[in-house]
Amino acid sequence: MRQLRGQERAITGNRQTSLAFAEAYGAGTIDDSAEAALHWSRDRAREAGIRTVTTGTGAALRLLAAAVDAKAVAEIGTGTGVSGIYLLHGMRPDGVLTTVDLEPERQGFAKQAFRAAGFAGNRARFIPGRALDVLPRLADGGYDLVYCDGDLMECLEYLAESLRLLRPGGLVCFEGVFADGRTVDSAVQPAEVLRLRELLRSVRESTTLVPSLLPVGDGLLCAVKRG
């Protein structure tokens, strides 16, 4: 037991280095055209003042999409297409990404990025609008993975919709659950952080879900819907 504690201390002492290595590990593992499209999409996001998923988060999304052999994925928050490129790379060659965003201009950037990354136009379905207006129109049990990167105040509603949309064995993922460290900060926090804490508690306590919190990017909460 003493030896195990020593190992734990060693891991803790190198945690930042290990996390940085994990973040960088997925870089360069997709083809050159997709890498170029990712760079272009990130530049458009910076110009628009929006954050994109990190390389580590993107690699995790690609892995998860591949793990469930995803043919149908729903994405809340298109952004400029960075997360979508990773998801499409993990999906089946005939898979379709349905992506929802309030900003049609951002979706226009994502369309260009997907095309530059080598994906045919029929691989993505772009739906402009508020997620909670769009999601109820999508088919029950019709999706292998639902990725949520939208309004934090609506995360519990996204969870409820995801449970309806997912097939048994499907995955739901929430980006940004660390909230730059505020989720675990004992200081007074804004309403969206309190909402995230509710989400984390609901997913962990659910009898319908098998959860895990991945320490990539700003925190990726994942859960499998039981059969």
From TrEMBL:
What domain of life?
Bacteria
Annotated source species: Streptomyces lydicus
Gene3D superfamilies the UniProt entry points to: Vaccinia Virus protein VP39
Keywords linked to the UniProt accession:
Methyltransferase, S-adenosyl-L-methionine, Transferase
Task: Tell me a Gene Ontology molecular-function term this record carries.
Answer: O-methyltransferase activity
Which InterPro entries does the protein's record reference?
Cation-dep_OMT, SAM-dependent_MTases_sf, SAM_O-MeTrfase
Organism lineage reads as: Bacteria, Bacillati, Actinomycetota, Actinomycetes, Kitasatosporales
Q: Which GO terms describe its biological process?
A: methylation
Output this protein's name. Methyltransferase
